[in-house]
Design goal:
Elements: H1 5-13, E1 21-24, E2 43-46, E3 50-53, E4 76-82, H2 85-93, E5 99-103, E6 106-108, E7 113-114, H3 129-135, E8 139-143, E9 154-155, E10 170-173, E11 176-181, E12 184-190, H4 196-201, E13 207-208
Parallel strand pairs: 1-2, 1-5, 5-8, 6-9, 8-10, 12-13
Antiparallel strand pairs: 2-3, 3-4, 6-7, 10-11, 11-12
């Protein structure tokens, strides 16, 4: 069975380390804030000017002026700092973010990512994605493995306009966790109940499959 959005966020949260500064893109990445392991100190950074973003607010915590880059209301943790977007992008471009989690439309075996434009369709735009992929070494892409029509999004070459080139090393889809190296996707884990055969069928780009592919586990 394919992973839910919450399970994808929960799996990404396992990549966090104590003391990390982390930027979460819009969509599934924002949910990672709800799965930070207890006792771990992570500072979430948002490109609109917030360092120390907390979980989504309960109804009585909502502050319409406290939003993330996707214009969703958020909370701030103790010690948070609010500043201009110029300072926020200086952090990003200066390589001061330890982990970036982004959504994408496509990625390919060369680590290219397309996440900002589908010709002929109205999309929100680039946002901070281009700066994030240029300024970060540690990026995880979260996306569905295939379109609703069954067409692979893990490609030999991206077909859409690129956000960045050669910058993606890790991909978590609703079917699998993969790493990109040496011109191929390397299958590391599969979603519970998802067969290796299904992943092979829905991966257009070159896929390296080890003899044993463990299933992800969720408490």
């Amino acid at each position: 069975m394919a992973l839910s959005r919450e399970q994808m966020a929960q799996r990404v949260a396992r990549e966090l380390q104590d003391g990390f500064y982390v930027n979460l893109g819009i969509g599934i990445p924002t949910l990672v804030a709800n799965f930070i392991p207890e006792g771990m100190e992570v500072m979430l950074q948002s490109e609109n000017g917030l360092l120390g973003m907390g979980q989504f607010p309960t109804e009585d915590e909502i502050d319409a002026d406290m939003i993330n880059a996707g214009k969703q209301t958020v909370t701030a943790v103790t010690g948070a700092s609010i500043f201009s977007s110029a300072e926020s992008f200086a952090m990003i471009r200066g390589g001061h973010v330890d982990l970036t989690v982004l959504g994408a439309f496509e990625c390919d075996v060369n680590g290219n990512i397309a996440s900002w434009m589908i010709p002929g369709k109205l999309i929100k735009g680039m946002g901070g994605a281009m700066d994030l992929v240029a300024g970060a070494d540690n990026i995880i892409v979260t996306m569905t493995h295939a379109s609703k029509h069954g067409e692979s999004k893990l490609l030999t070459n991206c077909s859409l306009p690129l956000t960045g080139q050669g910058c993606i090393k890790k991909v978590l889809t609703d079917l699998a966790y993969l790493e990109i190296a040496d011109g191929a996707f390397h299958l590391k884990e599969r979603a519970p109940g998802v067969s290796v055969e299904e992943i092979i069928e829905k991966t257009e780009g070159k896929l390296i499959v080890p003899d044993h592919v463990p299933e992800m586990t969720f408490a």
